[in-house]
Amino acid sequence: MPYIDTHTHLDFAAFDPDRDQVLSDCARLGVERLVVLGVTRSNWQAVWQMCKQHTSLYAAFGLHPMFMAEHAAEHVTALQQCLAERLGDARCCAVGEFGLDYWHKGTDRAAQQQLFEAQLQLAVEYQLPSLLHVRKAHADVIATLKRYRPARGGIIHAFSGSSEEAREYHKLGFKLGLGGAATWPQATRLRQTIAQLPGEQLVLETDSPDMAPAFHAHQRNSPALLPQIAAQLAALRGESVAQFSARCWQNSCELFQWSA
Ligand SMILES: [Zn+2]
Prior knowledge:
alpha/beta; 9 helices; binds zinc ion
């Protein structure tokens, strides 16, 4: 059974000691394609180098809302150049990671919104999917997407919203990224929501090294855990692993315009 990890930070230092081992574990376990997301201008080059070295890796480039202090106005121009240079190269598969994060009370929402819109504009311009980080900000993200209507849609990564929000994203052409969060028994509301989401909207992800599943609590998360995470999510939905995983594979291929 093949899998696509639509969201990993395999370039992070947590993988420095054994990155090649993780990738060979992925190959052995059927995690055939992985999307590695740039989060600040400073990591784009490393992400790109890695993706050129390994045929299973695909790159996305963005300016993450949790790292506002590291971004500068000219980084949007740099992102535009980065995307323009790679236009037509299948290895560069999306804009991301970007979005809105209202977790911290004191955050400058206006600055986040401006950066969010600048990157959505690039996704529209270069006709790429948007890989979005959305925390406590679904209403503003949905309202903004309704104004921009990016034709390629994208993924709401680590989705933990409501069924109503899922429906709004569906109308806007957005898939929902599911991973380790729902493997925790205490995530009752999320587990109930996931059981009811339409299968055509779901894709798999790990967000590794973060968001470890419950069966691997407080350890480094890894894309090699994706098949086990998928098995738990399938059980939650009352589907067979084969059926659920095949659907997620197909949904991801459609979104990225990859051959199945
Ligand atoms: Zn991420």
